[in-house]
Design brief:
The chain has about 220 residues and is an alpha/beta fold. It has nine helices and ten strands. It has a single domain, classed as Vaccinia Virus protein VP39 (Rossmann fold), CATH 3.40.50. Helix content is about 35%, strand content about 25%. The strands form two sheets. Strands 1-4-3-2-5-8-10-9 form an eight-stranded mixed sheet, sandwiched between helices. It has a two-stranded antiparallel sheet with strand order 6-7. Helix 5 links the parallel strand 3 and strand 4.
């Protein structure tokens, strides 16, 4: 994407009422306006809040929001030019149950209050993301502790990935730490029992993986 196009998208994001681009300082000082108030002040309902971490183009957040009008969705990504696509689709289609926040995933507990989130989706994450000058995986112990804080006690995490390595690493960690794995499959499209929302929504990259017969894996779990 050219820098001209990026700038155009950044400018357009600023006009969308479903996009928030707080400064890092605002976030870390816990001054983000909707922390603890997503239901009351933004969505203006008491419906469950589901977040997608590393939402990319926002296709999954928008897809889930379209399938679930009685739930609220928030996509998080540091790349605003990417999720512009999802934000624009939501605006064009008059969807009021989906929003996007431009921030780093490791700051998610500054965007949501303890126990504010019902469910987390992690879709096609980079097996290793750069975090505080080191590389971390989005399902490592440190991240799981952070997710546990913002999740309700009944909250669940969904991991959908094309990386067999990420799938195996996460399953091993979950079993090792005694978390509750509700469902796990290393090829959801070859399994009739896979949850509908896992197979009925496909991202741009997922379609490319499927075209070359790459297996898509999925885990649904609770953090103990």
């Amino acid at each position: 994407m050219g820098s001209k196009n990026k700038l155009k998208r950044f400018r357009e994001n600023e006009t969308f009422q479903n996009v928030f681009q707080p400064t890092r300082e605002e976030v870390v000082s816990n001054n983000f306006q909707y922390k603890g108030k997503w239901n009351s002040d933004f969505f203006k309902n008491q419906n469950p809040i589901i977040i997608e971490l590393g939402c990319g183009k926002g296709e999954y957040s928008v897809g889930l929001a379209g399938h679930n009008p009685n739930k609220n969705f928030v996509g998080i990504d540091i790349k605003g030019a990417r999720f512009w696509r999802g934000a624009k689709t939501a605006v064009d289609e008059g969807m009021h149950n989906v929003a996007f926040v431009r921030t780093q995933i490791e700051l998610v507990n500054h965007i949501f209050a303890d126990g504010e989130v019902d469910e987390i989706w992690i879709t096609f994450p980079d097996p290793q993301i750069k975090y505080k000058r080191t590389k971390h995986r989005m399902t490592n112990s440190e991240f799981l502790k952070m997710y546990k804080k913002i999740l309700k006690p009944t909250g669940v995490v969904n991991l959908k990935t094309d990386s067999e390595f990420m799938h195996g690493y996460t399953l091993g960690l979950l079993h090792g730490e005694g978390h509750e794995v509700e469902y796990a499959n290393h090829n959801v499209y070859k399994n009739e029992g896979a949850p509908k929302e896992v197979t009925s929504i496909q991202t741009f990259y997922e379609n490319q993986y499927l075209e070359i017969n790459k297996a898509i894996t999925y885990i649904r779990f609770k953090i103990k």
